[in-house]
Design a protein that fits this description.
5-stranded mixed β-sheet; D-Maltodextrin-Binding Protein, domain 2; single chain; 11 helices; Arc Repressor Mutant, subunit A; 42% helix; 303 residues; 12 strands
Amino acid sequence: MHTLPDDLNLLRDLDVLLAERHVTRAAKKLGISQSAASVRLRRLREVFGDPLLVDARPLMLLTERARALVGPVHEALASLSQSLAQAVAFDPRTSRRKLVLVGADVAEALAVPALLSAFAREAPHMTLQVERPGPDLLLRLGAGEADMAFVPRFQTTPSLRAMRLMEDGFVVLMREGHPAAKKPLTLKSYLAHPHVLVAPTGAPGSFVDDALAKLGKTRHVTAVIRNFMSAPVIVARTDTLLTCPASLARAFEGLMPLHQAPPPLEIPPYDLMAVWHERVNNDPAHTFLRRLTKEAVPAFAGR
């Protein structure tokens, strides 16, 4: 036989029959009738193309094919049982599992502090590793190279499971003492100053530029950078403006001399989503991660 039997329960039956070498005793161990055990032995003989057990007294004799199967079948079933037991017995208090998250640095600034606080309470030995997104995100999730990713709703795909974490809007950041900070920010003063644009993937355009285009306006972008977390540092030391997620501004509150103002144009808010592959949906460790993420990240971001 070159393939497994269609009914994998037959392997368990085979393991018991080979160990007991007695149909009645095997039936008792399997919790079935003697006639049912005889039927299963007959099916096994058909599957393997071999008698497997031949009549003898007091115990049946194993054929050479059956003798070759004893160890591999028993070890395979034991290994599978152990793996299933480990999955069911996941305990966050003792687990040392590493979980890999994917997201832009603004998502990292939100998720990691929130999750670390929750891990300290419930999973003190688990580790988080955060990596940057890329065009291969779906492949990384499917291959088990990443456990979860944080993306705006428009980047989700039907092939991934998704969970809404929070709605995020936009604010305009500038240094304290900036000329535009002395009075309410208008569209005219907003466009009169240079801007920093964060483009994590390097692609052109943004929510802000799309909103300006609807008004027939453009802004002067004096710097394009890849990282959200460095943008407030640049803004705090120059006369540039940064239009960024409100959650990023909250992350820097009290850390740097920054002033924030509402945007003088309508920029639609967006939903921050957590996405993962179907292959890990029933993994107890992943279920635990999703619960903590759902509870901790929105609470941290909205503090």
